[in-house]
Amino acid sequence: MNGSAAAAALCVVAGFAGSVQVAVMARLGDRVGVVEALAFATVVSAALATLILLALRGSLDGFAASARQPPWLWLGALMSLLIVFTITLAGARIGTAATIGIIIAGQLVMAALIDRFGLLGADRIGLGWARLTGLALLAAGAALSLRST
To answer: For residue 34, which of 8, 29, 40, 69 is within the disulfide window of CB 3.0 to 4.6 Å?
Structure first.
């Protein structure tokens, strides 16, 4: 399996994990509180990531290297907090499928804007009718996922 195929396979696995994460975090948030669940999950994630860093790199030098980068590159950490907070809150209120559908619609719209305008250091990629139609259909699907059966 080449690098692109492995990356695509990992994306599929992460997609499955994201849906499981919504369901689990929603239950944890119901039991202990949304902010408490967010804090717990963040600490556990940080601890596991630190162990992985130590296991694969043998040091914590990556922390120092990350801290020396421009602060706007730290936005990933803030976005992670927002995503985990949102799925913990929304999953219990609108369901796993609706939560994931709306998040994916939002991600694709933002990704299209990032590509189109070359934001955050990304290469510029045009937005043709096919991509715009796909985004519109996804937005419609996300809206429909909010309707109860």
So the answer is: 29
pTM for this predicted structure? 0.84
Domain count, the chain: 2
Phi, psi angle pair for 125, to nearest 5°:
-130, 130
Q: How open is the CA angle 12-36-34, to the nearest 5 degrees?
A: 65
Instruction: Give per-residue pLDDT as tens, 77-119.
Output: 999 999 999 999 999 999 998 899 889 888 988 999 999 999 9
Among residues 139, 147, 67, the alpha carbon closest in space to that of 103 is found at 139
- 15 with 86, same domain? yes
What six digits make up the tokens of 99? 């939560």
Distance CA 139, CA 137 (A): 5
Rg (CA), the chain: 18
